[in-house]
């Protein structure tokens, strides 16, 4: 089973700042099979990025994903108040999918 | 509109059985995988498994393989997650999500809260 490790656990930033979230896999993940999700308190997760870099329709272009192999990154170019949330990466190749443990982006 | 509507909150005692449901609408149910995800109180997301309703092909996370059963009834566009004997550690929110190898989990249900307590 592929283990995903996200860092940092918590990111404290101010609105307007840039956020860089990391997701590292225990073995290579096909770039077509890496997703990011956003979850706000009391809500279900929402698909944010799929296939490493494809943005879901509901999200603006300040969100971007990149990476390959075992290292993947979610970047939020300029944080808006509604972006403060928990972000999870997920690999969905093969028969057993896994999530990272999450990165909380909080207001500094 | 693609939608997944889950059954309501449950409060059960240890040792009891339970089946929760996920009703799909707005897309061809049998042509997309449906997955289940656990979120324990204050914790992260855990992928439990997926089912392909067309042929009931089911894949489980090793962590959940013998703990739960995932099934689907394609006649009513509904997926299920079932326990034979609940434990207090099963207390969590359970989400279903439309799933696929192209986009991951793109549409989510609202979640079902399961509380197991004596």
Q: What is the element layout, followed by pairings?
A:
The complex is a heterodimer of chains A (108) and B (118).
Chain A: E1 4-7, E2 10-13, E3 19-25, E4 34-39, E5 46-50, E6 54-55, E7 63-68, E8 71-76, E9 86-91, E10 98-99, E11 103-107
Parallel strand pairs in A: 2-11
Antiparallel strand pairs in A: 1-3, 3-8, 4-5, 4-9, 5-6, 7-8, 9-10, 9-11
Chain B: E1 3-6, E2 10-12, E3 18-25, E4 33-39, E5 45-52, E6 57-60, E7 69-73, E8 78-83, E9 92-100, E10 104-108, E11 112-116
3D architecture notes:
The complex is a heterodimer of chains A (108) and B (118). Chain A is an all-beta fold. Chain A has strands spanning 4-7, 10-13, 19-25, 34-39, 46-50, 54-55, 63-68, 71-76, 86-91, 98-99, 103-107. In chain A, the strands form two sheets. In chain A, strands 2, 4, 5, 6, 9, 10 and 11 form a seven-stranded mixed β-sheet that branches. In chain A, a hairpin with a 6-residue loop joins strand 4 and strand 5. Chain A is globular and about 35 Å long. Chain A starts with a strand and ends with a strand. The mean pLDDT of chain A is 96. In chain B, the strands form two sheets. In chain B, strands 2, 4, 5, 6, 9, 10 and 11 form a seven-stranded mixed β-sheet that branches. Chain B has a four-stranded antiparallel β-sheet with strand order 1-3-8-7, with no helix packed on it. The A-B interface holds A 1, 32-33, 35, 37, 39, 44-47, 50-51, 54, 56, 86, 88, 90, 92-93, 95-102 and B 35, 37, 44-47, 50, 59-62, 95, 97, 99, 101-111.
What portion of residues of chain A is helical?
under 10%
Q: How much of the polypeptide of chain B forms β-strand, as a percent range?
A: over 45%
What fraction of residues of chain A sit in β-strands? Answer: over 45%
SSE class of chain B: mainly beta
């Amino acid at each position: 089973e592929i283990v995903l490790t996200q860092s940092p656990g918590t990111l404290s930033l101010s609105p307007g700042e840039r956020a860089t979230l990391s997701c590292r896999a225990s073995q290579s993940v096909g770039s077509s099979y890496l997703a990011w999700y956003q979850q706000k308190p009391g809500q279900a997760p929402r698909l944010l990025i799929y296939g490493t870099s494809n943005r879901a329709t509901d999200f603006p272009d300040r969100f971007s994903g990149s990476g390959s192999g075992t290292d993947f990154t979610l970047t939020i170019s300029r944080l808006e108040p509604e972006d403060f949330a928990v972000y999870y990466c997920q690999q969905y190749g093969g028969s057993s999918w896994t999530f990272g443990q999450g990165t909380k982006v909080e207001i500094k | 509109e693609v939608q997944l509507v889950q059954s309501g909150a449950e409060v059960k005692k240890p040792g009891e059985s339970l089946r929760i449901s996920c009703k799909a609408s707005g897309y061809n149910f049998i042509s997309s995988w449906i997955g289940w995800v656990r979120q324990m109180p204050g914790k992260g997301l855990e992928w439990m498994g997926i089912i392909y309703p067309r042929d009931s092909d089911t894949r489980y996370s090793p962590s959940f393989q013998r703990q739960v059963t995932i099934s689907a009834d394609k006649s009513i566009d509904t997926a299920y997650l079932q326990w034979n004997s609940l434990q207090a550690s099963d207390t969590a929110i359970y989400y279903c999500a439309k799933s696929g190898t192209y986009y991951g989990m793109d549409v989510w249900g609202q979640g079902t809260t399961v509380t197991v307590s004596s």
